[in-house]
Specification:
The protein has helices at residues 7-18, 32-42, 58-68, 83-92, 104-115, 123-134, 145-155, 160-167, 171-185, 190-199; strands at 2-3, 28-29, 46-49, 73-78, 96-99, 120-121. The protein is of the alpha/beta class. 55% of the residues lie in helices and 10% in strands. A 6-stranded parallel beta sheet has the order 2-1-3-4-5-6, with helices on both faces. The relative contact order is 0.09. The mean pLDDT is 91. α7 crosses α9. It comes from Streptomyces naganishii JCM 4654.
Length: 204
């Protein structure tokens, strides 16, 4: 089953698969909501799912199909390979993730693999997922000595300008240190950084 909000894309994919041996297109859907209903009714082996569609996103549809226990494997086929697209789609239950610039043979092989329950990822997406898995979780990465110095001064209510003067660094460097330590502590502002630092014993 093909899910995409662009009729031209759906027509192109339908024509491609119907001309390839071993494939049958059972139906189409133009958004995520329609995709869930049609997949439940048609019971396809594989759903080719676009992600960004008006009237119901692909990730929401994947999540709902997983919740309903629909047996179809979902293979994402989209233009987007950012972390904000790939990771939620995989977490929602997608079997694979390909980009729309994939060659015809690669796409056909991917659908067959998905039907067999194998995971299929485009190289770009695979490297992104590996990087995301290897990245330290917020709060687990230790602060550098300089970041601790900046944080201690922040806790005393010192302004960026005063911190720069005291540590003999530029204000821009102070801001960079703050950005890094916010990320490491999993916070968004000075007050939260100080609170978390006291809570974890970083500031004593």
């Amino acid at each position: 089953m093909i899910v995409d909000d662009h009729p031209v894309v759906r027509d192109g994919l339908r024509g491609m698969f119907e001309s390839a041996p071993g494939f049958r297109v059972l139906g189409e859907a133009a958004n995520g909501v329609e995709a869930v209903e049609r997949a439940a009714a048609l019971d396809p082996d594989v759903v080719l799912m676009d992600l960004r569609m008006p009237g119901g996103s692909g990730v929401d549809a994947i999540r709902e199909l997983t919740r309903r226990g629909v047996r179809a494997k979902v293979l994402v086929l989209t233009t987007y390979d950012t972390d904000s697209d790939t990771i939620p789609a995989i977490e929602a239950g997608a079997t694979g993730y390909l980009l729309k610039d994939a060659p015809r043979d690669e796409l056909c092989a991917a659908v067959r693999a998905a039907a067999e329950g194998r995971t299929v990822l485009s190289p770009a997406v695979a490297s992104r997922l590996v990087s995301a898995v290897r990245a330290p979780a917020p709060g687990n990465e230790p602060l550098s000595a300089r970041e601790r110095e900046v944080l201690a001064l922040v806790a005393r209510g010192t302004s960026n300008r005063e911190i720069a003067r005291e540590l003999f660094i530029s204000e821009a460097t102070v801001k960079t240190h703050l950005t890094h330590l916010y990320a490491k502590l999993g916070v968004n502002d000075r007050a939260a950084a100080v609170a978390v630092a006291y809570d974890r014993g970083i500031l004593g």
